[in-house]
């Protein structure tokens, strides 16, 4: 019994299908709890007022935007090394979710920044990095759609994902070098000096958990769709032959 | 120096087209591949040459001795006939010998730009490439397309006397009779079954 | 490898336009900028380093899709793949050939175009040096992008979308070094980092390029 057994599309579908509704419901409940708690049952920030509460959307979305790319990197490597179709299709399925998370992070960031910095957009390193990440997602997804043969597309997007990851990290540091920026430091860290008080911290954790569950649910759902598409195409090809 | 092929399975576009192909070629032997369009002759030759992975089975011939040639023969129209050949010779670590130009009747055309050659002349230039790269195991995909009868005979002579005569091997997919004394392998019996294993979409069925 | 490099250079010279088009595009972009932002010398001189770098980058982008497309069309690519030359070497040579036919002329032309934008006197040396260090990276990254899109019928636009984000670090360090030079600061950091990127790109991308070519040859 090895974990790779679940890389078989049929086995993957059979195993994840019963779990999927639970994950989706879990995500819904967690998000509602977290957001309601965060929006209505936490005090306003003494400096930033109620605008600070957009943080419950902004921070989880930004974390997911980066982590989804990392997940795509891992699944791409698994595809290149072990040739498990589910892995490649999961990477493909995660792309659009990642780009939406990046957009949410950029949009909520703009809404948050406007009253505080007095402008919707500044070329701050963190904002710029997310814009660059957005471009990387865009290129990755465009390559998937441009190539007709499924396995060729999986191979080439995986290579692009690996090379892109290196350049994304390079860009992150290059951008730091280019402009020191006015974005506040990391909102959540495990250092002794927490920069967010516990009252904000617990609902934020709930929101992050909700976003993670939502992502897992969506990725399973979209991977199912991709597997069914491949299956439909495979059956069609056999029929024609 | 010999070519062994055992239980070879090949796929086109991720779907198996041929399976269980086996044959052997000793030095100086050629093999003619026959079969209807779409049976997988080109796919088989590309797999033999190592351009695409085999689904199953094994292909064995000495390393760095195979060469592939198809209708697209890598001729640059802005380079002259000798420049084209000298390039391929140099990439393969050799030099352009004059007798190759004679063998393929290119002596009078040697300084012409390849772009100004006729289709048949270009084809001869493409085939002459096989004479300069010094490879012993040739995988030829319809080598005589757009050649006239005289040129076909010239190519067949080169293949028999120069290439095979010096211990070379050739696997040729062709529809016309080259006049070679070579066995013919009919590919139809090797056609992959409808539900053949190994396709890239197999996991989804 | 030398044979392939010589052939690619000969083809670029004989096909004509290889050198010329990129340079002409570079010139036109630089000429258009003052029409867009206004003719004040002060403003132009301040934005000159960035404009020169962006324009050079776009000019280098123009010819990328031809790196492998011609060899793909006439069947040279599978023949090269079965030759004793490893595909990694082919990728490297293609990148170098693209640099010699595009990056090098752009680098040499850049100072002349700097005059048009009133570039600070102190910045010319830095412009030349950063382009000399940076354009090889642009060519090699572009070669990687070209290998990804070689099998596609209309890969040109997609190629730009894939390659431009990868150009960001090189652009940042290049333009930053020229700007610091223009302002009389030390540009050593930016130059070293840019050189590091170029070396890294030449060390690793030939392998990624060859992998992409192998997939596309299947």
Write structural notes for this entry.
- The complex is a heterotrimer of chains A (241), B (205) and C (218).
- Chain A has helices at 9-40, 55-82, 85-117, 125-146, 150-178, 198-240.
- By secondary structure, chain A is an all-alpha fold.
- Chain B is of the alpha/beta class and 205 residues long.
- Helices cover 26% and strands 23% of the residues of chain B.
- In chain B, strands 5-6-7-3-8 form a five-stranded parallel sheet, with helices on both faces.
- Chain C is mostly helical.
- The mean pLDDT of chain C is 90.
- Chain C has helices at 2-15, 18-37, 41-62, 66-73, 76-81, 87-116, 124-148, 156-166, 168-182, 188-217.
- Chain C is 83% helix and 0% strand.
- The two termini of chain C are 23 Å apart.
- In chain C, α3 (41-62) runs parallel beside α7 and α6 (87-116) runs antiparallel to α7.
- The chains are: A mainly alpha (241), B alpha/beta (205), C mainly alpha (218).
- The interface between B and C is medium-sized, with 29 and 24 residues.
In short:
The complex is a heterotrimer of chains A (about 240), B (about 200) and C (about 220). Chain A has about 240 residues and is mainly α. Chain A has six helices and no strands.
Name some characteristics of this structure.
heterotrimer; A: 241 residues; mainly alpha; 6 helices; globular; B: 205 residues; alpha/beta; Rossmann fold; five-stranded parallel sheet; three-stranded antiparallel sheet
């Amino acid at each position: 019994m090895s974990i790779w057994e679940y890389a078989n599309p049929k086995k993957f579908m059979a195993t994840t299908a019963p779990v999927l509704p639970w994950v989706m419901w879990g995500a819904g409940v967690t998000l509602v709890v977290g957001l309601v708690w965060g929006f209505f049952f936490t005090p306003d920030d003494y400096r930033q007022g109620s605008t600070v509460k957009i943080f419950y959307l902004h921070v989880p979305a930004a974390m997911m935007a980066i982590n989804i790319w990392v997940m795509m990197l891992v699944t791409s490597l698994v595809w290149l090394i072990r040739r498990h179709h589910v892995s490649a299709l999961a990477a493909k399925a995660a792309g659009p979710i990642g780009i939406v998370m990046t957009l949410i992070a950029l949009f909520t960031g703009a809404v948050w920044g406007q009253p505080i910095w007095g402008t919707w957009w500044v070329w701050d390193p963190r904002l710029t990095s997310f814009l660059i990440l957005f471009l990387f997602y865009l290129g990755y997804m465009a390559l998937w759609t441009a190539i007709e043969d499924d396995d060729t597309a999986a191979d080439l997007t995986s290579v692009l994902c690996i090379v892109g990851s290196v350049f994304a990290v390079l860009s992150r540091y290059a951008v730091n070098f280019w402009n020191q920026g006015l974005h506040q430091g990391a909102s959540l860290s495990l250092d002794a000096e927490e920069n967010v008080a516990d009252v904000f911290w617990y609902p934020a954790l709930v929101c992050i958990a909700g976003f993670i569950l939502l992502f897992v649910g969506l990725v399973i759902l979209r991977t199912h769709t991709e597997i069914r598409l491949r299956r439909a195409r495979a059956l069609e090809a056999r029929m024609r032959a | 120096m010999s070519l062994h092929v055992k239980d070879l399975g090949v796929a086109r576009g991720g779907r198996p087209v041929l399976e269980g192909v086996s044959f052997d070629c000793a030095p100086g032997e050629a093999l003619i591949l026959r079969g209807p369009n779409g049976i997988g002759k080109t796919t088989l030759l590309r797999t033999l040459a190592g351009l695409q992975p085999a689904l199953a089975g094994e292909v064995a011939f000495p390393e760095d001795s195979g060469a592939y040639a198809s209708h697209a023969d890598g001729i640059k129209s802005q380079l002259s006939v000798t420049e084209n050949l000298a390039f391929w010779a140099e990439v393969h670590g050799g030099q352009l010998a004059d007798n190759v130009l004679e063998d393929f009747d290119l002596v009078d055309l040697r300084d012409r730009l390849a772009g100004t050659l006729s289709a048949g002349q270009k084809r001869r230039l493409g085939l002459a490439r096989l004479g300069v790269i010094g490879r012993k195991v040739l995988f030829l995909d319809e080598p005589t397309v757009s050649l006239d009868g005289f040129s076909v005979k010239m190519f067949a002579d080169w293949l028999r006397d120069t290439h095979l005569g010096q211990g070379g091997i050739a696997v040729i997919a062709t529809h016309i009779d080259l006049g070679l004394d070579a066995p013919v392998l009919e590919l139809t019996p090797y056609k992959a079954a409808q539900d053949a294993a190994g396709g890239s979409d197999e996991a989804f069925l | 490898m030398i044979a392939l490099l010589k052939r690619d250079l000969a083809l670029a010279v004989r096909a004509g336009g290889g050198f010329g088009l990129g340079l002409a595009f570079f010139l036109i972009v630089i000429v258009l900028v003052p029409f867009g932002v206004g003719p004040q010398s002060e403003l132009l001189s301040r934005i000159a380093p960035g404009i020169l770098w962006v324009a050079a980058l776009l000019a280098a982008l123009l010819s990328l899709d031809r790196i492998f497309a011609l060899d793909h069309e006439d069947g040279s690519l599978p023949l090269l793949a079965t030759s004793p030359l490893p595909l990694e070497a082919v990728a490297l040579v293609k990148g170098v050939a693209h640099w010699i036919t595009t990056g090098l002329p752009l680098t040499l032309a850049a100072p002349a175009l700097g005059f048009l934008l009133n570039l600070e006197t102190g910045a010319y040396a830095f412009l030349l040096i950063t382009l000399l260090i940076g354009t090889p990276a642009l060519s090699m990254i572009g070669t990687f992008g070209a290998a990804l899109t070689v099998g596609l019928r209309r890969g040109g636009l997609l190629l730009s979308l894939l390659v431009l984000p990868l150009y960001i670090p090189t652009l940042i360090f290049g333009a930053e070094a020229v700007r610091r030079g223009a302002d009389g600061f030390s540009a050593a950091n930016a130059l070293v980092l840019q050189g590091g990127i170029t070396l890294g790109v030449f060390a690793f991308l030939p392998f990624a390029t060859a992998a992409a070519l192998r997939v596309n040859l299947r």
